[in-house]
Each structure stands twice: as C-alpha cells, then as structure tokens.
Amino acid sequence: MTEHEHVRVAVVGSGFGGLGAAVRLRREGITDFVILERAGSVGGTWRDNSYPGCACDVPSHLYSFSFAPNPEWPRTFSGQRHIRAYLEHVTDTFGLRPHLRFDAEVQRMTWDAEEFRWEIETANGGRLTADVVVSATGPLSDPKVPDIPGLDSFPGKVFHSARWDHDLDLTGKRVAMIGTGASAIQIVPAIQPEAGRLTLFQRTPAWVMPRMDRAISGAERFLHRTLPVTTQLRRGLLWGIRELQVQAFTKHPEELGFVEQIAKRNMARAIKDPALRAKLTPDYRIGCKRILLSSEYYPALAKPNVDVVASGLSEVRGSTLVAADGTETEADVIIFGTGFHVTDMPIAERVVGADGRTLAETWKGGMEALRGATAAGFPNFMTVIGPNTGLGNSSMILMIESQLNYLADYLRQLRVLGGRAALDARPAAVDAWNQRVQTRMKRTVWNTGGCTSWYLDASGRNTTIWPGTTAEFRRATRRVDLAEYEVLRPAARTASAEGRAEVGA
Q1: Across the chain, what does the average pLDDT equal?
Q2: pLDDT band at residue 491 under the 50/70/90 scheme
C-alpha cells in the first residue's frame, strides 16, 4: 500500500466471503479495490484451521462457489488441504492477486463525515481510504480460549485448535482435549493413535451423525469435467435436500426425533459401555446445537487410551487439570477446541461509525443488521456473514453469494446516485428486519431445543442463525430497497446546493 492510497472499495479478509466479494466486484466492472488480509496467504478459516483431521461437514459440491465449480473434488466431504487449494485456485482464476495486501491486519476503520470515506489503519503501518468497506472477516476467525484459573502455571504446551502447533510430537504424550465441538470430534480420532493418554473434557455432549464420506471416483470426476451440467445437477440435488430439511429446524422441531434415533444407533454401534454411552448422550433436542458428522469419533472414544470426563475444565494446578466435578487429570499438552468469538467479533471494536461509536458499542445489546449486511450509523459499510446469516444444516457459501448480490446492487445504487454519496441503514428498518427475524426464531429448534449454544449471545438471544431457507434469504437480498436507507451527502455540498436553490427562487 502506498502511504495515502485511496480505493473505491476495501475488502477485509480473504476467506470465502472476501474472495467472493472481490470476484463480484470485478464482475461488476469495479477494479479499484484492495483485499486487506492479516496473514500471509488467502484462505481464512481454511488457512488457520490446519489441525489433524480438519475437514468440512458440508458436501464438497455444495461448499464451493456456483460461479467457480470444481469438478475435481477428491471426496464427497473434502479436507482442509483441498478446500484451501480451491481458494488459491479461485484467487488465481479470477485475477485477484494484484488486489491482495498481505500482513495488513486492520487496526482501525473510521468514517470521515467530511470527506465521506473510510479511513483505514493497518498493523503494518499502512494507511488508506475507501469509499466503501466490505467486512468479510467471518465469525470463525478469532479463537476463544476460556479464562481458566491457573492456566499460566501449566508447564506443557497449550494451544487452540485453530492455532495448531505442528512442531509438537504428540507420541506418547498425555493430551487433554477441551471441548466437544466440530473441531474436537475431528481431532480426537486423528490424534488418538499416537497419544499415550487422551482425556476429553466434555462440558456438553454433542449429537453425532454418521459421516457418509467416500472418495469421488475418477469416472465421476471425468463426467463432471466433460459435462459441467452434471456438476450443477449434483449441487442442485444436495441443495434441494437441505432446503426440505429446514422446516423441521425452524417450525416443527418435534419432527427431529427420528434423527435422534439415528444418532443414538450411531453411538451404540461403537460404544458398548453403558456408563460411557450415558455420558455421551445429550439431554437436549438434536439440532439445538450444530449436528456433528463423524464415523470415527465414537470408535476413538472407545479405545483403551481414551478417557471422557463429563465436565468442563475449571482449574489448572501445574500439570494437574481439575474438572468442574472434581476429577483430576495429569497432562503434558492442552488443546482447546472451544470455538470462536462469534457474537462478539473483535473486528466490531475496530470500526468507528458516523456518531463516533464503535460497532461493538452499537451492538452492545446484541448484533443486528439490515438483511444481515448493514448497521445503522455505519454508512457505506457492509458485512458479509453478518448477524443472523448463519446456517444449521446447509452451506454458508449459498448465504455468502446472496449477500454478494446485495453488495452488487448496493454499489449500483451508489453509482446511480452519483457524486459523493453514502447509504446509511435507517434504524427503523434495522429494527423491523430484526424483529421479523427474532419473531421467526422463537419456534426454531435453536431457541426451543433446551441447550445453550454458540448461536446465542450473552443475553441468550440468537443473533447468529437465519431462521429460514437459503432461497428465502436469496429473495430477501436480491436488491437494495432505498426506502430502508438514508441517502447521505457531504454537508458542505448540501449547503451550497441549498444556497443555489434559494438564489434560483
């Protein structure tokens, strides 16, 4: 970056959301943009999460851009290495390299009401301005490690699953895995064979369904290469099945009972010990927390070198780990699989809006944004994967592409307005949208299933999940309704225009 670089659009982050936004900008004829990335390569969460066993729980052909189909996916559920390679491929195919600014973590973004642009400061000392900012940092980008008393006294290695220490040899080590989320159920089977002793600290058991993963044959890949329509049909089928499932999650959670029976049979096949089965059986409705997919997790837990502590970690005394139920365990390594800052995204603390407040302060009572994209008081600022855009059963790429449609129309509206202009979401529009979302949320399994999940914020409100189908969200974000926005113009220009009007009168 040059010292005083100015761009039409600044995109923050180079995961699926950021790269998708960049591709859409180029397709809209906008080439005056940069992608600010805090790391040294693209990939977002698929770059950061490189732990053993890391893979996607959404089928490969659905977990990719519709405008960049990949006929070469090697497995029905692809691993981290192949997904990251796909994102590198997208970067090269669509000519995004010249727009990338690596090692440029955003420290501060401030709306300049006089110049009508965003002032951006980065960690590498760079400063630039932008007419529009697209924040695509994603909710799974900043690891959350609980504040455990005595953790500093632990003499061994401690790290989060998203910051895996690849230099550490776990052979023969006493390893403590903290958490039972999507990362943990992949890590446990991957490291169990080499660990001397593996202890899983389980605060809440998860519902785990079989993962129907297999290699995609060469014949299938050849067919997808030579007849691209077959890739589209495969993607469409995967999408349609998941759309049909949405009603059970959003309107009739009682219909999920039969799915629980499948999950219980999955457990019973591998876990023969009744006491261990009891520990691993959730007491909440399936779907309340994200349903996890694994055919290796339960078999790994049944191995003789694995212990399950049905309680969270509450204290560390040197190399002794103490669970909330008093159980003590000796460990050489602690691995946290404790999730991310989802409802309190750190980027929100670095964005300062028109009234001088940060986005975090605006969202103090809970995240909310018009159509999951724009917040009142933050002109020309849009979030990809914003509040209430998450999914519990399908591919986030579908939601990202819908938000990119909204972004494209947002920029078209600014172009039509001409000159220096900004769109600021009206508070009443944000409130109305949020009320509709929260009203629909009341009957969903995520709110009624009897669990406490990372979908909920500190006040217990679900500010993460979209309570409908992806098709509904696509329709809701097809275009920008200017009635939901206040059109802003620079004060000086507005005053001069009023003066000219008075002279003309």
Answers
A1: 95
A2: confident
Gap between the Cα atoms of 479 and 474, Å rounded: 10
DSSP letters, 318-353, are TTEEEETTS-EEE-SEEEE---B--TT-GGGGGEE-
Query: Structure pTM?
Result: 0.94
Residue 89 and residue 68: Cα distance in Å, rounded? 9
Q: Residues 355-378, buried b or exposed e (16+ Cβ, 10 A)?
A: eeebbbebbeebbbbbbbbbbbbb
Residue 501 pLDDT level (bands cut at 50, 70, 90): very low
Q: Tell me where in the chain the CATH 3.50.50.60 domain(s) lie.
A: 5-142+341-496, 151-212+237-336
Contact call for residues 251 and 443 (beta carbons, < 8 A): yes
Instruction: State the virtual CA torsion across 170, 171, 174, 176 in degrees, nearest 10.
Output: 30
Angle, in degrees to the nearest 10, between helices 228-250 and 218-226: 100
The superfamily in CATH containing domain 151-212+237-336 is FAD/NAD(P)-binding domain (3.50.50.60)
Give the side-chain half-sphere CA count within 13 A for 284.
19
d(CA 74, CA 86): 12
Q: Is 240 exposed, middle or buried (0-12, 13-18, 19+ CB in 10 A)?
A: exposed
**Within 10 Å of residue 237's Cβ, how many Cβ atoms?**
13
pLDDT digits (tens, 9 = 90+) for 13-67: 999 999 999 999 999 999 999 999 999 999 999 999 999 999 999 999 999 999 9
- Do 281 and 267 form a contact (C-beta atoms < 8 A)? yes
Query: Across-strand partners of 426?
Result: none
> CA 130 to CA 1: how far, in whole Å?
13
What pLDDT, on a 0 to 100 scale, did the predictor assign at position 493? 42
43 three-class SS: coil
CA distance 383 to 391: 16
**Residue ranges of the alpha helices (H) in 271-367?**
274-280, 297-301, 359-362
Q: CB–CB of 177/331 below 8 Å?
A: no
* 66 residue type, one letter: S
Q: What is the 3-state secondary structure (H, E, C) of 206-229?
A: CCEECCCCCECCHHHHHHHHHCHH
pLDDT beyond 70 at 502: no
Q: Are 290 and 392 in contact (CB under 8 A)?
A: yes
Pair of tokens at residue 82: 């192949």
Which fold, 5-142+341-496? FAD/NAD(P)-binding domain (3.50.50)
Q: What is the pLDDT of residues 148-201, one digit of tens each?
A: 999 999 999 999 999 999 999 999 999 999 999 999 999 999 999 999 999 999
Q: Which amino acid is at 287?
A: G
Q: How many CB atoms lie within 10 A of CB 23?
A: 20
Residue 415 CB partners (closer than 8 Å, separation 6+)? none
